[in-house]
Structures are given as structure tokens and as C-alpha cells.
From TrEMBL:
InterPro entries: GH3, GH3_M
Gene Ontology MF annotations: acid-amino acid ligase activity
Gene Ontology cellular component terms for the protein in this record: cytoplasm
Protein's recorded name: GH3 middle domain-containing protein
Coiled coil stretches, renumbered: none
Ranges for domain GH3 middle: 384-446
Taxonomic superkingdom: Eukaryota
Naturally occurring in which organism (per UniProt): Adineta steineri
Length: 551
């Protein structure tokens, strides 16, 4: 059924909007209650006396202010935490195989992250966390389809492309009791082949998931996945998780289209000099060749492959022409990658590759190793709805983030125009955990926003905050106590680029990095810029040293 045929009062988003978003604080309080009830016997909860609290009680019988009594007590009695508060517990789980330390739920995976320090973090993930997330995937699709013109909606035959990372299940590091460990991007590979979640994700990939996992070289994996994507003409969406990696895939297409075309026309990955150079496993190459043949034979076999390869060469030889993605896949409905926060610097370049007809949308979910926090509000914005069913949210005002135990606000208390550090309590056992992400509260949802069609009821929209990413707390520069964030640096660089353009220097920022030069007689920031010439679209790396006004 055409998703647009449903009125705005029907569908998955309508139900989510009316039952969850319009009752965000009540639902979030209930989420906290469920977490505390579930984990009250875990060692961390016992050690912090959290298990002695009433988890979820209304302030009085029949009160509509349900949950606030216990929420206020929870915030008053339980300290804010950082990863150091959990390190001993996670190490006992990993090295000793101990259970029921942070959560009573079975742990199915340890997300590994170095965070802003060199010391590894291990964040537990549970089956119930996955269960909370699964229905939201369908809601997010409903939001995307409701935001698109009816004429662009996909047919059943069209395919999705998402650049994936993974490895064979036996390649994962394991805890003492055999729980797999690795980055969040590899989680799906850790699931057993019988997993329903893995099965669903596998149906969305062009390259069979089990074959992708056999490729243990990331460079070759990226190339092979792009060959499979370019071998078909009717991809509906093109997704790469992070915008620098997204741009990298485009550069591979631009630079290696001849070899990609040869791989497709010959149905043989040995046509790639990269694969020949690495002397890759011939048995795996045979499997990849067979899979490529299988996916292209549906379109016409040899004749189709030759025509497709010729078309790819024709379009990729149009240097500096906009819309390479739309030209390669005319049925492309949207392109998705991270475009919020400091990733915004890449938006203009990626939109150039999309062309005017293909919308560039932010990552559909705002997620991290610790949990899933937000869902894209519309393809027309980088803003997110908070997800009150996944974690319990608190917020620290930006001006208070350097305090050890600052006061926090709830979803119902944050205001547009302000920035906050996210604090979360999660089902896998993080309690009042300082995430380190600074978010903007941009506005409250309104019918006049025209983001996504809203149900007719309730007529008066309650306070539903929209958020966007700003920066990470750990990414501050500080020479003289000025607390310079990523956003401050990016804003200054963008102003500088505008001045250069007015002076006849047509460049844009590709990327940058910076550090504080503290061993000089007068401390200053060193900024390295990677620039691209706007007219020629030719990358060049340049470095610049910039003294702060304090230097």
C-alpha cells in the first residue's frame, strides 16, 4: 500500500505521536520506573542504594502528575555518573564472567569505544534494548515516507544501499562467558544467523551479509559493496553512516569507475587492481563473482552488464557535473548521512553529489554505544524527536557542564534556544550517566513547521522539543580558560571562508583539525585545513596557523 494513501491520522507515526510524543514526560517517567524495577537487584544498584527507592509512584492517588514523586527523589538521591563509575563492574563482567552487576537482563554484546580518552570503554547491550528499538525502525520509515512526495515513493522491486561494516562471528573478541565485544557498527555481525533482527537487516543489503563479513579488509569491503550498488540501476536510497566516509565513497566512484565498470561487465572482481594487488582469497572471489552474476542476471545478464558498465563510464566521465548519484541511479529517492553538528561542514559538497532532485537527509537515528536517543523529525530538517521509550532523559544546562554534580532538567523543562548536556538512565544499567553530548533545543513542534503531517488530535500540540547535535564536551579547546568548542571553531572558519570568497578565493572546507600550541612563548591554536576549489572541485590540502585573539 502507498504509505501516503493513509491519512495523517493513521499509520505508525500517528500512533507514536499521539501515544508517546504528546505524553513524553509521562512516558519517560514510566521508562525510568521499568528500568529501576528491572535492575533493582543488580550490584551497581545495590551498592548505590538505588534499589531501596520506590521506582514509580504518582504524587497522590489519581494525580495526573504521575511519576514526579519518584523522579524527583531519584534525582535527589542518586549522583550523576561517568564511565569511571562503571569501569570496575564492566571489567568484572568481561574478565570474570560475573552477572547481574549492572542489569538483570542477559547481556548480548559489549560495545567498545575509546571515547575522548585512550582507555577502552565497554558498554553493555541487552536484548531488551534491541526490542525497544525494533518498532522505532518502522516508525522512522513512516516519517521518511510521509515527508517525501508521493511520486518518489519506492516500489517493492527497488533496493536500498547502506554501507556496512562487519566480520565473521568467530573473529569477535569475547568476554569470559563468551559475550562478543566490538564497535557498535559490527553489532549485527555478532548476532546468530537465526536472529530475526539480522535476517531483516540482511534483506536490505545488495551484497549478501554473510559474504560481506568474510571480507576482512575494509578497503576491499568498501570497493566490493560499491560495485554491487553500481551494478543495479534502481537503488532507492544511498546511506553511509558518517559524512567523511560518505565523501570517501564518492571519491572511490570518481577515481575508480573504470575498474568498477570492468568488474561489472566481466562479472569478475579480479578486474580490480586493488584486489589483484592484495592477492585476495580466490574462493571468496568466486563467491563474490557468483553473487554479482546472480544480482545482475535479473536485469538481463551479459547484455545488461555491458550496457550498465558503459553507462557508468559515460556519467563518471562528466567531470565536475553535479548530481553524480542521481545520474547513476535516477530512481534515487534520498541520500542519508550525518549532517548535524560539526558534520554540517560537509553538507554543501554532498548535496553537490546528490544534485537538485535528490534530498540529503540527516542520519535517521541519533544513537551511540550507550543507546538510541533521537529519531529524525523529517527529511526537511536535521532535528530529532527525543525517544522517551528508550532511555530516561535528563539535561544539564551548557553553562553548568563543568560542575561535578549540577542540577538537571527533564524533557518537559528544556527550552528552545538553549544547549544542554544529555544525561541518560538506560535499560542495560547506566544510571544518570553523563553522555558528553551537547545538544541544541531548537524549538517546539508546531503545525506551521510543515515537517511531517500531524494527526488532527490533539488539536493543541503539547510541548514537544526538537533537538540537534552541537558538539562533544571532550572536544573543547582551552588555552586561557575560554572553552572553545568545535562549533566555535567551525563558525570562525566558515566566516573566514566567506571573507576569502569575497576576496576572490573560491574555496570550501572539506575538513579540519586543530590543537592548542601550548609550548610557544605565547600560546595559540594551530588549525590544519583541507580545502576544495569551488569551481574546479579539485581537492588540495593546505595548513594554516591561526593565533587566537588571546595569543
Amino acid at each position: 500500500m502507498d504509505p501516503k494513501s493513509d491519512a495523517s491520522d493513521n499509520g505508525l507515526f500517528a500512533s507514536f505521536y499521539q501515544n508517546v510524543l504528546c505524553n513524553a514526560q509521562k512516558v519517560n517517567n514510566e521508562t525510568l520506573g521499568k528500568i529501576l524495577q528491572k535492575n533493582h537487584s543488580a550490584a551497581f544498584f545495590m551498592d548505590r542504594s538505588i534499589s531501596l527507592m520506590n521506582s514509580h509512584q504518582p504524587t497522590s492517588p489519581g494525580s495526573t502528575n504521575e511519576g514526579y514523586a519518584s523522579v524527583d527523589k531519584f534525582r535527589e538521591k542518586v549522583s550523576l555518573t561517568t564511565y569511571d563509575d562503571y569501569r570496575d563492574y564492566t571489567e568484572r563482567m568481561i574478565y570474570n564472567g560475573e552477572k547481574n552487576l549492572m542489569t538483570s537482563d542477559p547481556i548480548i554484546y559489549f560495545n567498545t569505544s575509546s571515547g575522548t580518552t585512550a582507555k577502552m570503554k565497554y558498554i553493555p547491550m541487552t536484548a531488551s534494548m534491541l526490542g525497544d528499538f525494533a518498532p522505532l525502525v518502522h516508525v522512522s520509515k513512516d516519517i521518511v515516507w510521509k515527508s517525501l512526495p508521493s511520486s518518489t515513493l519506492p516500489s517493492r522491486a527497488q533496493l536500498l544501499f547502506e554501507m556496512r561494516n562487519g566480520k565473521k562471528v568467530e573473529m569477535f573478541g569475547r568476554s569470559k562467558n563468551n559475550i562478543p565485544m566490538g564497535p557498535l557498527t559490527h553489532f549485527i555481525s555478532s548476532l546468530p544467523s537465526t536472529s530475526e533482527y539480522r535476517r531483516i537487516v540482511s534483506t536490505l543489503t545488495l551484497l549478501p551479509y554473510d559474504l560481506m563479513e568474510e571480507i576482512n579488509d575494509s578497503q576491499i569491503s568498501t570497493f566490493v559493496q560499491l560495485v554491487f550498488a553500481m551494478a543495479v540501476p534502481d537503488i532507492n536510497s544511498y546511506t553511509v553512516a558518517f559524512s567523511p566516509a560518505f565523501i570517501h565513497t564518492i571519491k572511490i566512484i570518481e577515481n575508480d569507475f573504470e575498474e568498477i565498470s570492468l568488474c561489472i561487465s566481466s562479472c569478475n572482481f579480479n578486474a580490480s587492481s586493488l584486489i589483484r594487488k592484495k592477492n585476495y582469497d580466490p574462493k571468496l572471489l568466486d563467491k563474490l563473482n557468483d553473487a554479482l552474476n546472480e544480482i545482475t542476471i535479473e536485469y538481463g545478464g551479459d547484455q545488461y552488464r555491458n550496457e550498465r558498465a558503459s553507462y557508468i563510464r559515460q556519467e563518471c566521465q562528466k567531470k565536475n557535473a553535479p548530481g553524480i548519484l542521481h545520474r547513476l541511479w535516477p530512481s534515487l529517492t534520498y541520500v542519508s548521512t550525518t549532517t548535524g553538528g560539526t558534520f554540517a561542514m560537509h553538507k554543501e559538497e554532498i548535496q553537490f553529489y546528490c544534485g537538485e532532485k535528490v534530498p540529503l537527509i540527516n542520519a535517521v537515528f541519533y544513537a551511540a554505544s550507550e543507546g538510541i536517543f533521537g529519531m529524525l523529525a523529517s527529511i526537511h530538517t536535521d532535528e530529532y524527536f527525543l525517544l522517551p521509550t528508550t532511555v530516561f532523559f535528563e539535561f544539564i544546562k551548557e553553562e553548568d557542564v563543568h560542575q561535578a554534580q549540577p542540577k538537571t532538567l527533564l524533557i518537559s523543562e528544556i527550552e528552545p534556544g538553549n544547549r544542554y548536556e544529555l544525561v541518560c538512565t538506560t535499560s542495560p544499567g547506566l544510571v544518570r550517566y553523563r553522555l558528553g553530548d551537547i545538544v541544541n533545543c531548537t524549538r517546539f513542534l508546531s503545525r506551521s513547521d510543515d515537517l511531517v503531517s500531524l494527526p488532527s488530535e490533539p488539536k493543541e500540540i503539547p510541548r514537544i522539543p526538537l533537538i540537534s547535535m552541537a558538539y562533544r564536551v571532550g572536544s573543547l579547546l582551552d588555552v586561557f580558560g575560554e572553552k572553545t568548542s568545535e562549533q566555535h571553531v567551525l563558525n570562525a572558519l566558515q566566516l573566514t571562508i566567506c571573507q576569502w570568497k569575497h576576496q576572490g578565493i573560491p574555496v570550501d572546507i572539506i575538513n579540519y583539525t586543530t590543537y592548542a600550541k601550548l609550548d610557544a612563548s605565547s600560546a595559540y591554536y594551530v588549525i590544519f585545513l583541507e580545502l576544495i576549489e569551488r569551481e574546479k572541485k579539485r581537492s588540495s590540502s593546505r595548513s594554516a596557523t591561526s593565533r587566537s585573539k588571546y595569543g
